[in-house]
């Protein structure tokens, strides 16, 4: 890192070793930019390093770090294994070994990075193969998903086919009917089929019609009800009227409202009776029949809420 430097004591020692008032360097007065001079020096050092490697044939005496030596050893082992298996002699194996060898002038860091990129796919495949339980679970879910998709597709196909069957008999525009439709379906049997089959719809001479009999029965029922209504006394008729009025008016009221109305009705009846009693006292005595009719009228008026 650029901000780091040697200790002060080491810097003082280096300064003393260099000496004082020495003659300038050979390139001290050169006009060459420092960046360009660094590039040229790096190129020269790379060429010298490649030459040393060709002479020695290994990376032991080149002053490499432990990591760079380890990467070079792994590359050499891979190339040796490929040669033993026969993959390095022909075809793709030979190309792999040539790719995994360090090139002339190539730095060890670049070479190790190239080896890692080349072996990354194989390493990932090896890790996936080692996790057998995960792969089995994944395959199981993939098969299950494929079955569900196949089932959905089959259901959609069957539905489309059924819809097509219902649509294919539809009458087109401007079609002309040559004959009426023929009914091929057999009708279902009903409960009254036997009765309807044996029924004599045409009346024999001297026989009354069935509908006429029903009309006569309705007339007799209505007549009886009218006679019973006439025979009832006035008290029953007043009770019927009272109940009808109560049902019609008090049907939609709450219990509290009904109680209040009942109390007001009783109070109105008492007031009406008092008023009638006063009128009778003013008029004097009357007959019993007239009194009975007046009492009936009073009861009807009270029931009506007057």
Automatic annotation (TrEMBL):
Coiled-coil blocks: 143-170
Transmembrane region(s): none
Record's keyword terms, sorted: Coiled coil
Biased composition (Low complexity): 72-84
Biased composition (Basic and acidic residues): 9-24, 41-59, 278-295
Stretches for region Disordered: 1-114, 278-306
InterPro entries: CCDC137
GO CC term (a single one): nucleus
Name the UniProt record assigns to this protein: Uncharacterized protein
Native organism: Linnemannia schmuckeri
Classification lineage: Eukaryota, Fungi, Fungi incertae sedis, Mucoromycota, Mortierellomycotina
